[in-house]
Amino acid sequence: MNTPLAGLRIVVNAGPTFEDIDPARYLGNRSSGKMGFAIADIAARRGAEVVLVAGPVHLPSPAAVLRVDVRSAAQMHQAVMDALPCDIFIGAAAVADFTPRAALDRKLKKQPGQDVLVLELIKTRDILAEVAAHPQRPTLVVGFAAETNDVAAYARSKLERKGLDMICANQVGLPGCGFESDDNALLVIDGSGERPLGPAPKHALAASLLDLISARLRKDTA
Ligand code: C5P
Fold first, then answer.
1. Distance 1 CA to ligand 1 centre (A)
2. 29 belongs to the catalytic site
3. What is the DSSP string of the chain?
4. What is the pLDDT of residues 73-110, one digit of tens each?
């Protein structure tokens, strides 16, 4: 078997996070987790020791992967930090940027005549940026950026702002690609340039992305 990633520990996060408002309601997003699960699956098949921190998704665990299930952005942050140190971190999760200031322990009731409800949200911690700035920083930190417009420019600014080695940008809303789909198209950006991958099934894209990551790792550690 071809195991080019043998000896490497890779942490991947995947899926959405759910931020509880009360015992019956939450704020979530449309991430299916398929891209991150495909990356974890292929990385394990290539011999890596893989930790997959999964938000609430309906996907079977890839073989030979240590899966840690979480619900909220705060839990995902903790699980990722607990999984360090590692050689490569791949942040494929759609982590909530904001969370309710406090989850209510009773179901929120609408008041008679109430037309407006104001929910106070506070910023979550940026897992990817914290991993990139961590004292035990992985050799490679790879992020994702879902954008609706100016994809390359926004992704490049995230690469710099969050201190990443590589970012995979995808355009939200391309027909047949993205959140709930089995296919996706990525623009992979690093310090040396841009490279389009796909459109292709997420497993094929994960394989191509891991080829790029392996090549980059070889270059950086040569
Ligand atoms: O800033 P934005 O959310 O668009 O960046 C997307 C990238 O940042 C993804 O890789 C996502 O996993 C990561 N992220 C994170 N923690 C957050 C928000 C985003 O790790 N709180």
1. 34
2. yes
3. ---TTTT-EEEEEESB--EEEETTEEE-----SHHHHHHHHHHHHTT-EEEEEE-S---PPPTTEEEEE--SHHHHHHHHHHH-S-SEEEE--B--SEEESS--SS---PPTT-------EEEPP-HHHHHHT-TT--SEEEEEEEESSSHHHHHHHHHHHTT-SEEEEEETT-TT-STTSSEEEEEEEETTEEEEEEEEEHHHHHHHHHHHHHHHHHHHH-
4. 999 999 999 999 999 999 999 999 999 999 999 999 99
